[in-house]
Amino acid sequence: MKNTNKFSHNQKVRIKSTGELVTINKWMYVKNMKRFSYILMEYPNTFYFEEEMEEN
After folding, report:
1. For the residues 13-30, what does the mean pLDDT come to?
2. Local confidence band at 2 (pLDDT 50, 70, 90 cut-offs)
3. CA angle 46, 50, 43 (to 5 degrees)
4. Strand 12-15 and strand 21-30: pairing?
5. Is the pLDDT score of 53 beyond 50?
6. Secondary structure of residue 50 in the 3-state scheme
7. Alpha carbon distances (Å) from 1 to 14, 19, 23
8. Which of 22, 24, 21, 19 is closest to 9 using CA atoms?
9. With contact defined as beta carbons under 8 Å apart, do 24 and 14 qualify?
10. C-alpha R_g of the chain
11. Are 47 and 6 in contact (CB under 8 A)?
12. Is the Cβ–Cβ distance between 26 and 39 less than 8 Å?
């Protein structure tokens, strides 16, 4: 089974909890959690999971 991420580099997305529009800086697959995490340009020291964001 091939895993594919939902969002890509430089894509504008919305954080579900705040409604804030942000930009994906980079993404990575977290193997032991079996899901993707994303680092945002606006918050470079924090990561988010796919389920915390939605397409704009």
Report:
1. 97
2. low
3. 20
4. antiparallel
5. yes
6. helix
7. 28, 32, 28
8. 24
9. no
10. 11
11. no
12. yes
Residue 27: closest CA among 1, 3, 2: 3
What's the length of the chain?
56
What is the model's pLDDT at position 1? Answer: 45
Spell out the residues 6+ positions from residue 51 whose beta carbon is closer than 8 angstroms to its own.
35
Q: How far apart are CA 4 and CA 9, in angstroms?
A: 13
Confidence band for 3, pLDDT divided at 50, 70 and 90: low
Q: 20 is written with which tokens?
A: 């804030």
Q: What span, in angstroms and rounded, lies between the C-alpha atoms of 51 and 12?
A: 15
Complete DSSP assignment for 10-49 = T-EEEETTT--EEEEEEEEEETTTTEEEEEESS-TT-EEE
Q: Which two tokens stand for residue 47?
A: 């990561």
